[in-house]
Amino acid sequence: MPLDLPLLNSSFNAKDKYRSRVGTSYALLPFKFIKLDHKRYIVTNFVGEYVVLSRTSLHALIQHKLEINSDLYDQLKVKHFIIDGDSTVALDLLACKYRTRHSLLKNLTSLFIFVVSLRCEHSCPYCQVSRQSQDRQAFDMQLTHAEKAIDFVFSSPSPDLKIEFQGGESLLNFELIRWIVERVSHRNDIESRNVSFVIATNLAILNDDILEFCAEYEIDISTSLDGPRELHNANRPRPNKNSYELTIEGIKRVRDRLGNDAVSALMTTTPASLSQPKAIVDEYLQQDFSSIFLRSISPYGFAVKTGVASGYSSEEWIIFYRSALDYIIQINLEGTPFREEYASMLLRKILTPFPTGYVDLQSPAGLGLSCLTFNYDGSIYASDESRMLAEMDDYTFRLGTLDNDTFADVISSEKLIGLLSETMTESMPMCADCGIQPYCGSDPVFHYATQSEIVGHKPTSGFCSKNMEIIKHLIHLLEDHEDSSLVLRSWIS
Amino acid sequence: MSELKKTITPLYGMLTKTSDAEPVIVRLTQNRDPSSTDNLAYLVQKDEKNIPLGFDTYVVPDHCTETLPSLNNDKRVTYELPQSLSYLHEGDVIRINPRGGEISVIYRHHSPSNSLFLTEQCNSRCVMCSQPPKIQPDSELAEACLEAIPLIDPETEELGLTGGEPTLLDEKFFEILDACKRHLPNTAIHVLSNGRLFNYLSYAQKLAEIDHPDCVIGIPIYSDLAWEHDFCVQATGAYDQTIRGILNLARCGIRIELRVVIHSYSATRLLYLAEFITRNLPFVEHVALMGLEPIGFGKTNLDALWIDPVDYQADLEIAVSRLVEAGMNASIYNHQLCILPTHLWPFARQSISDWKNVYLPECEKCAFQDRCGGFFHSSMRKYSKSIKPIETVLPEHEIIL
User: Fold this and answer.
1) What ipTM score was computed for the predicted complex, to two decimals?
2) 174-213 in B: which are within 8 Å (CB) of A?
3) SS3 of A461, please?
4) What domains does chain B contain, in order, with CATH numbers?
5) Backbone angles phi and psi of A53, in degrees to 5
């Protein structure tokens, strides 16, 4: 330090008086680490703060050989990886951050999926629910079940209640949607919850009556758009081979009537998608979407029967994902704000103290806690995927029926609690020691479907390799690419 | 453009003569026939004829006493204002101490920046404190505030409670806040506190029990490193107390603002401090990143504290981005537009209290003077080398205000 540095008036204490209490040693707070590349490690603590360290620094940290008050030392201290004689407030802050991280748990279920019909006029080979083509009676939800389901929804203590109508093609049973929305809204005059509605639909049978109704009740629309015309129509066959045209036309009509943000789209990656990440992203840009959710296919329903689910490996999907993400970042750098949703959710977990509500990134798993699904036949499932499995005659994740069970029965059932107790990544084999555990989650239905076991074997799990690669890639971009990092940071708010 | 303000508005002055009477706190009025004259002083205009009778106290402009024979013959008390306080106006609240011959301005009706000064005592001794603490007992300050609050216009939008450390007053502090709630139910209250006493949960709970409808506690934080913060406030253990205080306030549902004064010691970790706030204190409703006010200890220690604001702009930019990305509200106080990068302009506020807010002569040439926060009067002793009027018209896309 230069000697000619101006000093405080002599009545003030110099810095050293306060710095000296740091002492000469430090204690470690809990953390985990994982290799980022051949010379660096990602080190995380249980509230989701991270640092990237060289192997040498990691060794020094663990062996209590860090230089006291060095820049690295201070960084590790303020992120609560180490503690010394300076302050004891780290423990209060860690407790606060841990509570924040799990703050969604106390609200219990906020997303309720109503499968109002399993009928569909599409015949997609990747269908994950095994749609049916006829028989209204057998494959539509009955009014008595819908009524009970509404009681069920309002039994949740959550201040936010989201009701999502799924299918099949949900609009084939629009009468029931109308009845449910009106009844829920009426009841909410007294309940005063923050209720929102979403209709998941392929838009093929959208009409003005439906749009008017959606406008009146501020219902959002979620649809499927897999990419450019050829890819979309190949993925989503229907008579006349015009799914793409109907979707685009539907999106336009929804926006004209309900506003630009009232419609969102989901894409599913098929083997044919893998070679065209840019074209898929371009299609979303062209359709004026502000984001895309790049999703790999789920191993359920027709996707398994037709072999689509095994059409590519998770490694192939990761290559696809990374090139799409690179392209999206490039687009942002060229001045067009556009997000990838899965990365956005992971980045919120990496860069903020807050949790994400996304079902597949929870610990304990989102089963029942984040989401409950009412199937068309009155049975209650732990998630949307759980009922997809049921269409393959596997009822592992069926939690009860609307005829016999209440919300309290289901949420406190031994079945659900038993399932959940095996989904805490904090204690799951291999997850417990994994450096990215604070950012990841449990997907017991996936592991059950692919490995016949809800905990699963992580070294061969597609879920694990997918999240591991994406999270490492995001941290690599945050650390090593200033431009990309700016773009990624803009996605968290 | 109106004429640029280059001098301070004095809040203190001397009466032209002393007299043997009790100190009073009064609201000035020119209403000749109020329903009650309690705590009112009639503000006499220059050359005013037919001055109304019936007031206990009259305040007259300087050199006018002799022109007002009707008042002199009366038992009523008349005080002559010094020229420096001739700006006083209907609705202003002042304290007159006849024996000491002092007159102090407590509240100015036309000002957007009024603060009540609760105490001069403090449990910290910040190296840049603009209002250095004193040890002597000063409970009369709090009593004066309690007396003044009912005289303040209830239409007042915002009122500051400051010190010293207001929370040291204990019960009296809560009494003052409660008086604000009762007499000024529509006035936003902004308390400046170091937050240390709120490390006792019971203290935060007491504040919550007042249940003020619109109250924010502004708390300074200087570093993410405990010892460095404690150095800045010259008090061992202050950081831990302040952080626990903030957590307790949040737990009690009290709104919090963090205030970071940027000087040579806090500038180096500004960006880390911003990250620390987003990770640990994301619930605070506002973060103010503030330029140094070179008065009080800020003047005493100016050489040691000084860093030219242009030299920390890069860190300030990142600090603001971190806060904004995290969805937090950030503002930049006490910085002139000509030293801020244009994309920080939307965060710059005209934050300096009107009575001590001034501009340089060259600011008259600046196209953005009317949107710029200007300087503290005390900054005239030292300001950035990069102050320069923005004479040219900036490209439209660069200006977002």
Assistant:
1) 0.92
2) none
3) coil
4) 12-105 (3.50.30), 109-398 (3.20.20.70)
5) -125, 150
